[in-house]
From TrEMBL:
Gene3D superfamilies: MFS general substrate transporter like domains. Residues 11-391 form the Major facilitator superfamily (MFS) profile domain. The chain crosses the membrane at residues 12-33, 45-65, 77-95, 101-122, 134-152, 164-183, 213-238, 250-267, 279-295, 339-359, 365-387. Pfam families: MFS_1. Keywords: Membrane, Transmembrane, Transmembrane helix. GO terms for molecular function: transmembrane transporter activity. It comes from the Bacteria. InterPro entries: MFS, MFS_dom, MFS_trans_sf. This is Predicted arabinose efflux permease, MFS family.
Amino acid sequence: MTSPALMTRSQQYFLAIAAAVVTANAYYIHPIIGEVADYFGVSEARIGLVPALNQLALALGILLLLPLGDRYSNRRLTIAFTVGQTVSLGVMTVAGTFGQFLAGSTALGFFTIAPYLLPAYASKRVAPERLGQVTALLTAGVILGILIARVGAGWIAEHYGWRLVYWIATGLMISVTIALPYLMEGGERERGKARYWSLVGSVFPLARQHRDVVLSGAIQALNFAQFIALWLALALYLTSPEVGYGTDTVGYLAAIAAVSIFSTPRLGRWADVVGARKARLVFAGIQLIGIALFYPLSGSLWGLIVPLVLVNLVGPGIDVTGRMTFLSLATDLRTRLTTIYIVLMFVGGGIGSITATAIYDTFGWGGVCLALVISSAVLTALAAYSFRKNR
């Protein structure tokens, strides 16, 4: 059977845009959560169910749906799950009650699988020497989606109301759903007749057989936990009575993440040259330096910019190089190996979100900074172990 045709550069860039659109959906709620709560007349505790259940449903969807990518074509599954996202987002857009809005958001999380199928699809349609570059391009698309969602949703809701945010989001999703069948070429062989639960259950033996994937997932779990913990604690610190900044200041600082949109593809190309594990070790070392600078430079906003730039430059690169360690393995395993990696990542994010506020409440900003330095040192040590083990 002939190999699938390689993607053109235009297709690669359009897939990155699609990755941005399908990823952004989970992040629109973050800056407008208070306005949505006021509209539906619910408490802050109840409105918190929206992002919480969305993330839990996302983790469940990854575990139950993503392994299907090793049986059915990534193209077919991506299109199907994108339709599910579009319908779910439409429910949120027209919801008349909080229950309907919550149900739509939860379903949206469950179907948000496309960002994790797209790298596996692309890995089968690029030359091996360009795997890192294309993986980084898709990662940059995800970063762009998160950035635009956070900045754009707050501005639109402030001037035109939160409903327009979701009308625009639904329109973007309809456009992506229509475009994907043309962007993603067919020709994949659908593999095997394995029963569904056998396919899902096969993830666990694969984790035992591919320990390096578990190690990469653990490294990314720490990386993602640090990202969540840093921004939660930084928001609490900057808006505290002692410091006195507003939430808009936190949003302006979050825009620094735009630097990674430009740096990540270049770092991916460099990783193609020097090797994924060596590049990851370098990125981890730079990130450790950046995190160590947060506490001594946190006395001013200008000082905070320095570690924020460093962390945002290399943080996504750790994720890209982590994926590179297994996306070059057998094509019939890649999606299930991605499942292991992503589930571990979200477990790390959950731990980071829980521990950050607890540490801040007890030990303050200094305690969080110390915890982040320890976590980053462990991440760097694991990256060094992986590099030495695979030399």
